[in-house]
Design brief:
homodimer, alpha/beta, Aspartate Aminotransferase, domain 1, Aspartate Aminotransferase, domain 2, 2 domains, 8-stranded mixed beta sheet, 4-stranded antiparallel beta sheet, globular
Chain lengths: ~400, ~400
C-alpha cells in the first residue's frame, strides 16, 4: 500500500472527493469468469446502431458547422424540445423555458447542489441513496442526513421527524434529494399517495426538492406515477437523463427548475462546461423526433423485466433463510437485506472467491449504515448469467 | 426592466454566477447586417466534414456498445493518447498518467479551481484575462487580483510585487492563472525568457500555476515556445482543449496535473459529469490518429493569419490617432487601447449604431479596469467583412 499525499494547496472541499466503492469492483468485475452484479450500465443492445450511425454521419456532414461548433448555454432548442417529448411520454408537463441541458444528469445535480448548498448545509436523502449523489454532496461540503424508507419508499413521518431533529441541532436544511421511481439502489417506488404529502412537507418546511428521475420510463408495466415536479414546479428541481433511455455515452441530461433558479443555473452551467456536446444534443433530437425510440424502450423494458424476474427466481431458489429483498417494478436494481448479523463486506470476500461481485450497502449511505445490505444490478447481464451470479451470491451469503 | 428574484434557498456562491458581457452582444450580433468582432468561435470550414461524418457513423455502427456507453472517469485511453500526440505537436512532453479528460477545457479549469480554492482565496491572473475564467473564479468565490502585462505578456516584476502586496493584506494566494500563448483577450504571447522566471517566482512563493493553452498550436508562423508545464510539471496545472484545433461542439478538453493532484481531480471529474462524451472522445482519437489533422491546422493557421492581417491593415487605415493595438502572432484576438479619455462603452453605443459589435475591455477584468480597452476577434469573419467591421469601429471611436 502506498499513501498518496494530496497537493499541498488543496481547498477544504478536495477532501470530499473520495473513491466510490463502485469503482473498487471495476477491476475485479473485468476479470474473465467474474459475474458482475455491481454496475448499473444500461443494455445498449436494443439500440438501432446502424440508424444512429447514419444520423451522426448526416448531422456532421450536412450540419457540421453547427453540430461541431459551440452551442447555446441553455442547450439547443432541439434538445430541449426532445426533453419536453420525453417528459410528456412519462406524463409530466414541463415549461420548456425551465429546461437546462447539461453534460449528463450528474452535472445537473452538481449544478443544483452548487447553487443551493453552502458548506455545512444539510441535504436530506433516502437511506440508502445514489452513490454518485453522495459524492456530489461530499465534494461540495454539504452534509447528508438519511431518511428511512420502507416498501412504499421515503416515509413521510420519518421525513417530518428528521426535519425536526436536524433543525433542533441548529443545522440548516436546504433540500430533500429523492429518487421516487425505481430508486437506486433499492428498486423501490415512492407510493402515489405519499407524493403530495412529501411535496407539502417540504414546501411547508421551506426545503427544496431535488427529484432525480433517470428510471421513470423504465416501469416494467409501463405505468407512471405523478412526478413531484408536476405537484410543485416552483419548489422542485427535476433532474432527467437520456442515459437510461437513449445512451449514456452521449452525456446529455437536464434539469427543469423553478423560475427563480433558471438564470443562475444557466450561468453556472456555462461556467462549468460552456455547453453540452452539440453533436450529442442533435443526435438525441433526431432520435427522439424521427425514430421509434418508444418502441426501442418497450424492448428494453421487456429485457429488464425478464432479468429482474430471473434475479427474483434465483433469490427464491438460492438466498439463505433470513435474507430479504425488494421486488422492483422497474429500473435496474434489487436491494438485499442479509440475515441478522451478517455483514456485506464479509459476504463480498466470499463472493469474490465465488467469482461474483456486487456493491455492498455501505456505499449508499453517507454515515456507515448499510452493513447488512447489498445491491444487485440486473441491467447488463443476461438471465442465465444473472441466475448463476445470484446462485453464487447465495452460496457466499451462506458461507460468510 | 424586470428584476429577477433568486430562489430563496440559494447558497452564497450563486451570487457569483453573473451574466458575461460577451453574452449580451449575442442577440445584437445575430441581427442581419451586423458585423461581429465579439465572439471567439473557431472557423470550422477547414474541417473535413464528410470524413468526420464517416468516422462518427463507423464508430456508432461498429463500436456503438462502447461509444454510447459510460466510459472511464479519467477518459478513454484513446483520447488520452490523442492528447499526448497533440501536446507533442506543440513540443510539450507529458506523462500520460497526468492527463484527465474533461467535457471541454472550461470544465478542466472549473475542476482545478474547485480543488484549489476555498472561498476568499486569491487567484492571480493577467489583467485582462479570459472572461470565462473570471466567471469560474466568481462562482467558486475565489478573488481575482490582476497582474499587469506588457507586450511581452505577464510582467515578472509585477507578479512579485502583486504577491507581496496581496500577502501584506493577509490574503492567501492559491494560484496564478495564465494564458501564455496568444492570450485571450490581448493576443499577446509570454516572452520565452519570462517563462522560467515566472515558474520560479511561483514555485518560490508556494503558488500553483494554472496554464491555460487553448491556442498554442495556432501560431501564425508555427513557432511554439516552452510550456510552463514542461518547466515545472509538479506545480503546473496545464489545461488543453480540442475546441480550437478540432471542434468545440464535441466538448473534449483536458488537464495535465501534478502527481499529487490526479486522484482527487479524477474523483472531482466523476462527481461532476461521470465522464466526457465517449463518442466525442472516440471521434477525436480517430481524427488525430488517422487523419491529416496537422494539414487541416496549417490551413486554419493561414486563414487566421490572413484575417489578423486584414484587421491590422484596417486599423492602420481607420483607427483614429491615439488608438493603440496589439499585434498577435497567433490565436484569435487583437486588443485595442482607445485614445486617452475615450470609453469603450460609449464606443460600443456608437458601434452598434454603425452595425458592428465587440466586447468592451471591462468584461476581461474582475475589478472594473479596461474601460479604455476593447477586444477585436478575427477568427470567424472573412477578411472583407473584418475590414469593413474595423472601418465601422474606427468611425465609432472617432465619434464617441
Amino acid at each position: 500500500m502506498t499513501t498518496t499525499l494530496d497537493f499541498p494547496l488543496f481547498a477544504a472541499r478536495a477532501e470530499g472527493y473520495r473513491p466510490s466503492p463502485v469503482r473498487d469492483f471495476w477491476a475485479v468485475s473485468m476479470q474473465p469468469g467474474v459475474i458482475s452484479l455491481a454496475g448499473g450500465n444500461p443494455d445498449l443492445s436494443v439500440l438501432p446502431l446502424g440508424e444512429l450511425g447514419d444520423v451522426a454521419a448526416r448531422l456532421v456532414a450536412t450540419r457540421g458547422l453547427d453540430a461541431l461548433q459551440y452551442g447555446a448555454g441553455k442547450g439547443t432548442d432541439g434538445a430541449r424540445a426532445a426533453v419536453v417529448r420525453v417528459m410528456d411520454a412519462e406524463g409530466i408537463a414541463v415549461d420548456p423555458d425551465s429546461i437546462q441541458i447539461t453534460a449528463g444528469s450528474q452535472m445537473a445535480l452538481e449544478l443544483v447542489v452548487k447553487l443551493l448548498c453552502d458548506p455545512g448545509d444539510v441535504v436530506l436523502a433516502e437511506g440508502p441513496s445514489y452513490v454518485g449523489a453522495i459524492g456530489v454532496f461530499a465534494g461540495l461540503e454539504a452534509s447528508v442526513v438519511h431518511v428511512p424508507m420502507d416498501d412504499g419508499g421515503l416515509r413521510p413521518d420519518a421525513l417530518e421527524a428528521t426535519i425536526a431533529q436536524v433543525r433542533s441541532e441548529g443545522r440548516r436544511i436546504k433540500a430533500l434529494y429523492t429518487i421516487p421511481n425505481f430508486h437506486n439502489p433499492t428498486g423501490i417506488t415512492l407510493a402515489a399517495d405519499r407524493r403530495p404529502e412529501i411535496v407539502r412537507i417540504c414546501a411547508d418546511a421551506g426545503i427544496a426538492i431535488i427529484e432525480d428521475n433517470p428510471y421513470g420510463l423504465l416501469a416494467f408495466d409501463g405505468v407512471t406515477l405523478p412526478s413531484l415536479h408536476d405537484l410543485d414546479p416552483e419548489n422542485v428541481f427535476y433532474l432527467g437523463s437520456f442515459s437510461k433511455i437513449v445512451a449514456p455515452g452521449l452525456r446529455v441530461g437536464w434539469a427543469a427548475v423553478p423560475r427563480s433558479a433558471r438564470r443562475r443555473l444557466q450561468l453556472a452551467a456555462e461556467a462549468t462546461t460552456i455547453c453540452a456536446s452539440v453533436l450529442s444534443q442533435m443526435i438525441i433530437e433526431e432520435y427522439v423526433t424521427r425514430h421509434d425510440w418508444l418502441g426501442v424502450l418497450d424492448r428494453a423494458r421487456a429485457l429488464y423485466l425478464a432479468r429482474s424476474q430471473a434475479v427474483q427466481d434465483a433469490l427464491v431458489a438460492h438466498a439463505p433463510a433470513g435474507t430479504q429483498w425488494s421486488v422492483p417494478r422497474g429500473g435496474f436494481f434489487t436491494w438485499l437485506t442479509l440475515p441478522e448479523g451478517a455483514s456485506a463486506s464479509h459476504v463480498l470476500d466470499a463472493a469474490i472467491e465465488n467469482r461474483v461481485v456486487f456493491v455492498p450497502g455501505t456505499a449508499f449511505f453517507a454515515d456507515g449504515q448499510g452493513q447488512g445490505n447489498l445491491r444487485v444490478a440486473f441491467s447488463l447481464e443476461n438471465e442465465a448469467t444473472l441466475a448463476e451470479g445470484v446462485a453464487r451470491l447465495g452460496a457466499a451469503i451462506a458461507t460468510a
